[in-house]
Design a protein that fits this description.
Blueprint lengths: L4 H12 L1 H21 L7 H22 L4 H4 L4 H28 L2 H17 L5 H10 L2 H13 L5 H10 L5 H10 L6 H19 L28 H14 L4 H36 L2 H5 L4 H6 L5 H10 L5 H6 L5 H13 L7 H6 L7 H29 L1
Helix pairs in contact: 1-5, 2-3, 2-5, 2-13, 3-13, 5-8, 5-13, 6-12, 7-8, 8-9, 11-18, 11-20, 18-20
């Protein structure tokens, strides 16, 4: 089993009751499109109006996919059905189920114990609290949505400030290990699995450490949710392990009744589900349509062409286009380079993991949280991650291929 138990449980439930999962996802998406009008928040500001429109479009697309009725562009297996069945159904179940398990992770001392233990490393290298090490594990071993949900909970509980939460969701919320396996299999490079996985894993976190020191992340405010006082990690005096253990025990003793914490976390999880699912169907579909039916990404791919050519990546123009295709959906670059030279496949395969930001999944998830990072900043961060990743991945890949 190449995943964490929560992901395994949800995947098992979804596979056993596929039609029920689809009905659930559709119901949530339709309800999400109605809620802004019921709550009278749809015209609160320009952002609220834009997201309300996005939710309505998402609901319309979800209905078409569910009924299998509509234009080919929507009903293509890798468009509407992919977004609905692979993302909306799975993530729609994962977030509330994960919230139950998240209660034990967040409210009963584990985070505080592990956070103090990891603090010297995380704070020095990634400028984030030691607690953020758990985010990285939740994403890489579970799913992007799981990691982002965890980060949002930590932010709203004022254990991360705005800068820290922004670094975490744009740097650690990568695809899960099971999808990395899918990438390697698609590219037919499973015989290179060990160097492929190690390169993808290490590059992701090296790039995060570098981009955290560049604008816009560098300039993010260090204020807490609602500009209230936060709960930063305590300074460590004495034995690190003993202090970490004592802090975990203290938090656990003050946690309160289990059922109340579970109810509160599940409630917050559904608020996130109502924001995420309809945006999968609208924002995600828009990005995929641009990629498959326009030359937008072909043209924009030329932005990376001087870099791919300078790095001497085989078929540099194809590699440049593939690099830009990671923006709408991380799997698109992989499909583009399937028949490319093996070195190019290796580089682009790793890049698809390290870019992190994508319109089909990460962007809707992050925009649905309370973390105040906008689309413009995410696009800049994605560009920075792409450039830095290519610069790091390419020489490493050349060295690997030289010695295998």
């Amino acid at each position: 089993m190449n995943t964490i138990p929560i992901e395994y449980i949800v995947s098992h439930l979804v596979s056993k009751s596929e039609s029920l999962g689809q009905i659930y996802a559709l119901s949530v998406i339709i309800l999400a499109s109605v809620l802004p009008f019921y709550r009278k928040t749809w015209n609160k500001n320009t952002t609220s109006i834009a997201f309300t429109i996005s939710k309505i479009i998402g609901a319309f697309v979800a209905i078409l996919v569910f009924l299998n009725f509509g234009p080919e562009a929507v009903l293509r297996d890798d468009h509407g059905p992919f977004l609905f069945n692979a993302l909306a159904v799975g993530v729609g179940a994962l977030i509330p189920v994960g919230a139950v398990f998240l209660t034990f992770l967040m409210n009963y001392g584990f985070i505080d114990f592990f956070g103090l233990l990891m603090r010297p490393i995380m704070k020095t290298v990634w400028l984030t609290p030691g607690r953020s090490a758990v985010d990285a594990v939740a994403s890489f071993m579970g799913s992007t949505a799981m990691g982002i949900m965890f980060t949002n909970s930590m932010y709203t509980n004022k254990k991360y400030n705005t800068k820290e939460a922004s670094i975490i969701v744009t740097g650690f919320s990568t695809v899960c290990i099971t999808f990395v396996v899918v990438v390697a299999k698609t590219l037919n490079i499973m015989h290179l699995w060990t160097p492929f996985f190690i390169t993808a894993f290490t590059t992701t976190f090296i790039v995060t450490a570098i981009v955290a020191r560049l604008k816009p992340l560098k300039s993010m405010p260090e204020t807490y949710y609602n500009n209230e006082d936060g709960f930063p990690e305590e300074s460590v005096n004495g034995n690190l392990i003993l202090c970490s253990f004592n802090e975990g025990v203290r938090v656990c003793s003050e946690a309160g009744p289990l059922y109340k914490n579970i109810v509160n976390n599940v409630k917050n999880a559904f608020n996130l589900v109502f924001e995420v699912l309809p945006n999968f169907m609208s924002i995600g579909l828009f990005g995929l349509l641009l990629a498959d039916y326009t030359t937008v990404f072909d043209i924009l791919g030329y932005i990376f062409y001087p870099l791919t050519m300078l790095l001497q990546i085989p078929e540099p123009l194809l590699a440049a286009k593939a690099a830009f295709l990671g923006l709408p959906e991380m799997y698109l670059p992989v499909l583009v380079v399937v028949k490319a030279p093996e070195l190019t496949k290796f580089i682009i395969g790793v890049l698809s993991v390290t870019q992190v930001i994508m319109l089909s999944t990460t962007v809707p998830c992050i925009l649905a949280t309370k973390i105040p990072i906008n689309l413009k900043d995410m696009l800049i961060i994605w560009f920075e991650r792409t450039v830095v990743s290519l610069i790091i991945i390419t020489p490493i890949s050349y060295m690997i291929f030289k010695f295998i």
